[in-house]
Design a protein that fits this description.
Number of domains: 1
Strand content: under 5%
Number of helices: 3
Number of strands: 0
Order of helices and strands: HHH
Largest sheet: none
Structural class: mainly alpha
């Protein structure tokens, strides 16, 4: 058994749980769903700014 396989799986899981791989997942989605429509996907900086705005702008609480 290769010891690197479980470590790679753990690393991927940690990156996904923390959101570190969000831009990579966005690019995979964009290529699969929107790639033939033309245009360009967001670069890393624009993507993370948009995600921060989506997550934190507006009222997100009950009181």
């Amino acid at each position: 058994m290769n010891i690197l396989n479980p470590l790679k799986s753990l690393w991927r899981a940690l990156r996904q749980a923390s959101g570190d791989d969000a831009h990579e997942r966005y690019l995979a989605h964009w290529t699969r769903v929107h790639g033939r429509e033309g245009g360009q996907p967001m670069d890393c900086e624009t993507f993370f700014k948009a995600e921060q705005a989506r997550k934190w702008e507006g009222v997100k609480r009950c009181c």
